[in-house]
Amino acid sequence: MHRLLQRQLKKFLGIPKEEDVPEELRRFVSDVSGTYEENDRERRLLERVNETNAAEINRYKEQEKELELAKEQLSMMESFRRFVPRQFLEFLGKDDIREVALGDSTRSHLTVLFTDIRGFTTLSERMTVEENFRFLNAYLRRMEPAIQGCSGFIDKFVGDAIMALFPPPGHADHGVQAAVAMRQALDGYNVGRAREGFPPIHMGIGLNSGAVMLGTVGSPARMDTTVIGDPVNLASRLESLTKGFGAGILISQDTFAALEDPRRYHLRDVGTVKVVGKDTPVRICEVYDPDPEEVVAAKDRTAETFAGGLAAYRAGRFVEAGERFGACVEGCAEDDVARKYIERCEFLDQQPPDPDWQGVTEMRHK
């Protein structure tokens, strides 16, 4: 560029030879050439910067799109988890609900919990549709933290009923602890209801442990997760038995056997039952940890008397059994299980069972 400019200037000025170019003109040409080259470098540099900026801006826009897509997918997954618990997916060995297919299943040994509100049908008839849903959501919203806080998860809401699962390890302990926490949460809810002039509500909880099948059922267009197996049915039956036995929480012999240390809880054997759909009698226990402290202490004091009454009942000595259960009520007026046994003893004393009776209470209704 420098020499080209010199030649053009010589031609323009009529200078025939290189050596005839004045020194001032040489310096001028050199300065002009340097300035031009510097400007040219800056121009090329600016073009590269602009190209780089454009590429960075495009890359940033692409990253923004990817981020928004990821947010949408995460939001969608969170929405799905409201309907299909994350723990259920883990049981099926799936990371994403979109991987779940109809018929996916697995087998696991866990504890099943059933609970519902006693007398809900009568209660709901006194409320409007909007009041029913508002009440149910207020109640269920208080139960879920108690379950999740004990390593469990809700499998289903069925009206006022809850079915919850507790996976290993420690499934039986977690289930019992959740049941106690749920009863305590209900006590707190009833305090608020009393302040607003509403009557208290009561719940029954049944727990059973065993091997079940977890999987998906339905059709290609509509499928749902479910848990099937005898342990599920028995847990549901035990929940139904709570009212007939006057107990808040009932657990099966299998749940009792799966506890790491039953002495950590306030438990007592409350009989042997034969439920609908099951041929083998099941021994059941009451968990009375959530009772008021004075009631827990009173039941502890009358534990031997209650056990003696139960032994007499199983042996068919109904008068003796009734007297022992009566002593339990005298020692603890809130012992509704003992009261229920007094009624049974009076009935069976008047209408004795078959000679081969084994002390099993047969439940004829679900």
State the gist of this model.
The protein has 366 residues and is α+β, with helices and mostly antiparallel strands.
Tell me what you see in this structure.
This protein has 366 residues and is an alpha+beta fold. The protein has 3 domains: 64 residues, no CATH class; 177 residues, 2-Layer Sandwich (Alpha-Beta Plaits), CATH 3.30.70; 76 residues, no CATH class. It is built from 12 helices and 9 strands. Strands 1, 2, 3, 4, 5, 6, 7, 8 and 9 form a 9-stranded mixed sheet that branches. Helix 5 runs antiparallel to helix 6, helix 10 packs antiparallel against helix 11 and helix 11 packs antiparallel against helix 12. The radius of gyration is 39 Å and the shape is elongated. The N and C termini lie far apart (102 Å). The model has no long low-confidence stretch (mean pLDDT 85).
CATH superfamily of the largest domain: Nucleotide cyclase, GGDEF domain
Q: What global shape is seen? A: elongated
Question: Regarding CATH, which class of the largest domain?
Answer: Alpha Beta
Described by strand count, sense and barrel closure, the largest sheet is: 9 strands, mixed
Which percent range describes the beta-strand content? Answer: 15-25%
Through-space gap between termini: 102 Å
Q: Domains counted in the coordinates: how many? A: 3
Classify the helix fraction into a percent range.
40-55%
Mean pLDDT: 85
CATH architecture of the largest domain: 2-Layer Sandwich
- Order of helix and strand elements from N to C terminus: HHHEHHEEHEEHEHEEHHHHE
Structural class assignment: alpha+beta
The radius of gyration is 39 Å
Helix count, DSSP H or I runs of 4 or more residues: 12
Quaternary state, please?
A: single chain
Strand tally: 9
Could you tell me the CATH topology label of the largest domain.
Answer: Alpha-Beta Plaits
Unreliable residue stretches = none
